[in-house]
Amino acid sequence: MQLAAKVQRLGRLEPATTLFLCCDVQEAFRSAVHRFPAVVATAARMLAAAETLAIPVAVTEQYPKGLKHTVVELDISRCYKVEKTLFSMVTPEVEKWLQAPALMPRRSAVIFGLEAHVCVQQTTLDLLERGFEVHVLVDGVSSQLVSDRTVAFACLQQAGAFLTTSESVLMELIKSKDHKHFKPISSLLKQRPAEPLEY
Prior knowledge:
By secondary structure, the protein is α/β, with parallel strands linked by helices. Helix content is 41%, strand content 19%. The chain is built from eight helices and six strands; from the N terminus they run H-E-H-E-H-E-H-E-H-E-H-E-H-H. Strands 3-2-1-4-5-6 form a six-stranded parallel sheet, sandwiched between helices. Strand 4, helix 5 and strand 5 form a beta-alpha-beta unit. Helix 2 packs antiparallel against helix 8 and helix 5 packs parallel to helix 6. The relative contact order is 0.19.
């Protein structure tokens, strides 16, 4: 039991115990957010990987009446989608989704989207409070101001979240060139944005 708890704190990921969270990658942010195309590229990579690895995904949209819907580049047709006004993704609907019997073994959450210092930060803190291990993709999370993004990452790391990248997460999930899905995952990793997000 002690060994299992220790391993969990190392941030190891397995497809059967992981879920993805795509936070508010919406049209109204396109011209405002720092390196928005890189956020979209990482989100598309993770959504495609989720389908390949059978990892469930929750997608939220913050006040779509004002901020519009998820960008058309992202196929969210197979995701659990929730519209919200709460900044955190952990709305009553998402909380119920997380507590579904099929999802109960999934205690590792990988989050990407917008904005780092508001919705991503509050979601991460809510999940940490609920005992989840949270992995924040620095190549898939941004804000309008670089300073807000930078400080959010510092706060989240202090709170106990893992800062990581989409490539690191996907390689951790498959672990070997011998994995049956190595080729499609490897193909996803070859697709890179023209201007990636820095860290």
